[in-house]
Amino acid sequence: MIEDEVLIAMLMEQILIDAGYAVVAAFTGEEALSKATSIDRISLVVTDLRLAYGIDGRSVLRELRANCPSLPAVVVTGFGQWLHEADLRGVGGPTARLMKPFVAEELVACVAGLLSDPAARPDRRDRRSRASDPRDASP
User: Fold this and answer.
1) φ/ψ bin of 109: left (φ > 0), alpha (ψ from -120 to 50), beta (otherwise)
2) Degrees (nearest 5) of the Cα angle 129, 131, 132?
3) Sheet containing 95-99: which strands, arranged edge to edge?
4) What's the N-to-C CA distance of the chain in angstroms?
5) How far, in Å, CA of 132 to CA of 139, rounded?
6) Rounded CA gap, 24 and 13, in Å?
7) Predicted local confidence at residue 130, as pLDDT
8) What is the per-residue pLDDT for 78?
9) 85 phi, psi to nearest 5 deg
10) E-strand spans in 28-124?
């Protein structure tokens, strides 16, 4: 999970933990990519689209999907009224969109929806297999 606002990150992390998911939190895109290299299995990524420092959520997602094109993601943003297709151009893969502010149930529903969709599961044939139990780590 990647979120640059500390309080929002803490809240999102707790929501996902309470829902039974293992969470690896990062506050910058660079930190997320660094942590991802040491994680055996990533089931899903939750990322803020626009991160205040360093690379943005779109770039992180693009980098992670270079190794695992079918890695599902929830992209969160508080900018603008709608998250436009242009904001996600070039990231590919199964992606849910979530606008801030949101309630806990919306975040959990996005994650659960992606993880329950067989088409949204990471492909075991991807170069760095990240298929796993839905409760595995989510940077």
Assistant:
1) alpha
2) 135
3) 45-48, 73-77, 95-99
4) 4
5) 14
6) 8
7) 34
8) 82
9) -55, -35
10) 45-48, 73-77, 95-99
Structure tokens at 14: 């707790």
The whole-chain average pLDDT of the chain stands at 83
> Tell me, what's the pLDDT at 119?
63
- Which pTM does this prediction carry? 0.80
- Provide the token pair at 107: 């975040």
Cα–Cα distance between 55 and 49 in angstroms, integer? 10
pLDDT, tens only, 60-111: 999 999 988 899 999 998 875 555 555 566 667 888 889 889 999 999 999 9
Q: Is the Cβ–Cβ distance between 23 and 138 less than 8 Å?
A: yes
Asked if residue 13 lies in contact with residue 110, where contact means CB atoms within 8 angstroms, the answer is no
Distance CA 79, CA 100 (A): 8
Residue appearing with tokens 């939190």: 25
